[in-house]
């Protein structure tokens, strides 16, 4: 493992990540790269107001952010000085009129303490206006100079999705600027410094826009990386992690995704789909929002390919200054894994570069419908010099051929031919052979756990491909006919036996408790003197309720009027919980129970880092398609977490890009579940190498931010994600499954929303059945950070399998105690969660440090 213990080493990695995530979408006439000394006219406010990240828990900031214009100058491009002066003065004048930062902080603090933070936290912020460049200034620049137009987009974020008009589609000021630039200059480079996708249809109609780069929100080193790509110091190798359609309306979830909090009439409810709020146990609210996943398994390229919808830029697309030849050489099987060996040749005479090899499968549709193709795996090559050739191996588990059958509650590989496709994007693959399945194979028997409510099932219609004519390309039919059989499969190769966990109870408990001269501590459990079960039985219900909540007043709900302390008290007035963490702060730490030798542990946001280095956001990192590099990022960010004594790094965000205007798409990785899973897994493995656990989130079906947790102010219920169990398992749960099964991750965060009428955090089938029983997860489950007013009650959350309620505090502690008295959560439930949590604490860095310092 590489060590990233200095700021310089992290910045170098941040720049490498940013550079490998830049996607060259278009490069007509080989306009890029530009040679140093090339005269350029740089347009767009983002050249000096460069966007490096998003907002909310995925936010990032840095005093050392590189700016695009400055980096272009450093790279030797000859920028137009008059245009530079215009933008610098315009931005300066705007900042002078803006509110002082201390005023904004004061407003935030007031709202936080008033309990109104969630009502405004997700308030929509429109894209910043582009400055209107005087026509005479543009006219004074020779038209043969290269223009570089930077379009920035920082809208959306936590609790708030983006908008369609003047957000996904270009704003009026952007259209004006685009027209001025494209009509005057003969060759234009367009750079998308955006936190999600935008409409590019108008751009495609501008013949002068020869080159198009997707920068994304690439962190504090993004501008420096961009300058190196534009000038050819680095050859672009990024690929799109989601499909770019010709229009928003062509995405299958377009009519199902509402985002405008200011217009209540646009919110979709049960009644819009012929359902009843009452039948779905949502009563007493003005509105009951619904996210209907009508498209089922047809998300992203799975939809566009299956229904033959033309796309502007397909999933996995990305150009290079180099040119690569991809050739399948041979295949082999190792146990239940299948390997495809590929030879890649850099055919370029001048440029070194990297290519991304992508392997897809097209499965037969018998009992179950299948999309045209699905990504199985991918690998990014090493940097290949001009004319250099090298072999690489793509590997996948044969179980990945299985689909979920709700009728039999099993994962099955249906009989037939499975065609393997190799290429460098979803619309540029060729069949290399087939795997022949001689009988329908059952790879795993489970239980249906997330099914649609019976009162809804017959009233809902989901997208079907029965009448669809899928995408095809010239010669595909012949490739299928001539495809060699690479492997024959039957039931005998799959072993579905699962071993039961060992019982950890010891026989030492009674003698230790009888003969002990002091109150047992957690360290006694660590030393093997007492079992965890016996230790937890020493705690009262009140102590358990405190332990299973965060330490703090429970902001924002618990902080109304500043009435609450950070814990509850014993009868003598002393605090049950205290803070022992040297760097953590209330709301993000657990309570220490000092008399039992239980210290505090510290959780910290977020997906773009722990607020030290401003790393690229998830969408930009996903564009790298470089799992080794993401693992390095995980280790580097974890090293920063260790400096802050963080025990659980609240990342990665592994929900999907179901819709292009999802408010947190910048934080998430891809429309594809396996690509998302690979990103999350390798970041987690890197963090583990450095000694920190990640906390994958939001489990699950949190693809829409608008009213995900409802609204107290408006009397709106939390969003209900209505989804077929097959789609839930194969797409939205898949990334979590990949991380859980292939790492030692010990924290995971549930989401606010409902799934088929049941709160995710209150869903025992999800948190216990799937997560623990099916996937074998042994860590703790933490709720998302929010007061339990509309979302699931704290006692119900613990009963469902959540172990820690965050940020918790006295209001939720009271909920847990009340729930215990009412029988909604049992003593056994509380003790089970406490045992899981204390195992996490006992193995944490904070606990080890606490024991060293206190010698207890």
Walk me through this protein's architecture.
The protein has 3 domains: about 210 residues, Rossmann fold; about 190 residues, Immunoglobulins (Immunoglobulin-like, Sandwich); about 300 residues, TIM Barrel, CATH 3.20.20. The two termini are about 35 Å apart. With about 850 residues, it is an alpha/beta fold. It has 27 helices and 26 strands. About 30% of the residues lie in helices and about 15% in strands.
Brief sketch in words of this structure:
Helix content is 29%, strand content 16%. The longest helix has 18 residues, at 673-690.
List keywords for this structure.
5-stranded mixed beta sheet; 6-stranded mixed beta sheet; TIM Barrel; 26 strands; Rossmann fold; 856 residues; Immunoglobulin-like; 3 domains; 29% helix; alpha/beta
What's the structural blueprint in terms of helices and strands?
Blueprint: H1 7-21, E1 23-27, E2 39-43, H2 68-74, E3 78-79, H3 81-97, H4 101-114, H5 117-121, H6 135-139, E4 146-153, H7 164-168, H8 172-184, E5 187-194, H9 201-204, E6 209-214, H10 222-230, E7 290-292, H11 301-306, E8 324-334, E9 337-346, E10 356-362, E11 374-380, E12 389-397, E13 403-405, E14 410-413, E15 416-425, E16 428-437, E17 441-445, H12 454-457, H13 476-482, E18 485-489, H14 509-515, H15 522-526, H16 532-536, H17 541-547, E19 603-605, H18 618-622, H19 627-643, E20 648-650, H20 673-690, E21 693-694, E22 720-722, H21 725-732, H22 734-742, E23 747-749, E24 754-755, E25 758-759, H23 764-774, E26 780-782, H24 794-800, H25 810-822, H26 827-842, H27 845-854
Parallel strand pairs: 2-3, 2-4, 4-5, 5-6, 7-22, 16-18, 19-20, 20-21, 22-24, 23-26
Antiparallel strand pairs: 1-6, 8-9, 9-12, 10-11, 10-15, 13-14, 14-17, 15-16, 24-25
Helix pairs in contact: 1-10, 1-19, 2-10, 17-25, 17-26, 19-20, 20-22, 24-25
